[in-house]
Specification:
CATH superfamily of the largest domain: Glycoside hydrolase/deacetylase
Structural class: alpha/beta
Bound molecules: zinc ion
CATH topology of the largest domain: TIM Barrel
Order of helices and strands: HHHEEHEHEHEHEHEEEHEEEH
Helix content: 25-40%
Number of helices: 10
Radius of gyration: 19 Å
Distance between the termini: 24 Å
């Protein structure tokens, strides 16, 4: 016998329902197994400006299939049992927007996403501080006001594992501080350049997670794996993404099979 938790119900509500029912009284082990159910990370797409031509058809497909966009703030809230995700959530991330100059393609992509009623997440490379380049930071702040989530993609888009802890702090902690100062909203997430989170093989570099924790970040975003968050996981949680396929059909297939990758 299995009991599946509806994605429309928060963990807390589900556990409360079980606890308050005769079933919950008879089968308390079901409650603990529900607590141990890994959290499903919403399918997450990784866009770059080179993918902008594919974006309208991908967005149309998502809309037709009933997907709703969510950001990492929504994911965190659901993970903590404070709110529920939509039935079919999707996270749209766009990497490499910078704080020294905003390539107009990024703004065109934001408009495209908003046309279908979605919002997404920008991975910001914080090359210039808010005091050094207030004009560009004003544009970034406007994106936040439009409902976009801005997260750190480091200060210089560096490959992180070879760096010293001092350099990791500059890339991650300083970058997160600048986003908080420049946009009025603290970032939640480190989007790791090149998805390079490994010390060797598939072994995580723990320093990246430690420094992300110093920056009060809830998630470290890579590419491979990170499809589920286990009950034993503590912040910052590792989550993955998929890139954009050769066309919207392949991208759709990757979204639909997001949780099959281990
Ligand atoms: Zn990047």
């Amino acid at each position: 016998m299995t009991i599946r938790r509806s994605s429309q119900m928060t963990r807390r509500a589900f556990l409360g329902m079980l606890g308050g029912s005769a079933l919950g009284a008879v089968l308390p082990n079901l409650i603990s197994s529900a607590e141990n159910t890994p959290f499903r990370v919403p399918p997450t797409l990784m866009f770059h400006t080179k993918d902008r031509w594919k974006m309208p058809r991908i967005l149309a497909w998502l809309r037709d299939e009933g997907y709703e966009s969510v950001g990492y703030a929504d994911v965190l809230s659901a993970l903590e049992g404070k709110s529920a995700l939509p039935e079919k959530p999707v996270t749209l991330t766009i990497d490499d927007i910078a704080s020294n100059y905003i390539q107009p393609y990024f703004l065109a992509m934001a408009d495209e996403v908003e046309k279908v009623g979605y919002r997404g997440v920008f991975g910001v490379v914080t090359r210039h501080s808010p005091t050094r380049n207030p004009k560009v930071w004003a544009q970034l702040r406007e994106l936040v006001e439009r409902g976009w989530e801005l997260d750190t993609h480091t200060t210089h888009h560096s490959l992180l594992p070879p760096l010293s802890v001092a350099d990791l702090r500059e890339e991650i902690v300083e970058s997160a501080q600048w986003i908080a100062e420049g946009t009025g909203r603290a970032p939640l997430t480190l989007i790791v350049p090149y998805g390079a989170v490994y010390k060797r093989g598939r072994e995580f570099d723990p320093r990246i997670f430690e420094v992300a924790a110093e920056a009060n970040l809830a998630f470290v975003v890579g590419i491979v794996g990170g499809r589920f968050i286990g009950a034993e996981s503590s912040a910052p949680h590792y989550v993955g993404r998929v890139g954009i396929g050769t066309d919207h059909v392949q991208t759709a297939w990757w979204i639909e099979h997001f949780h099959r990758e281990s």
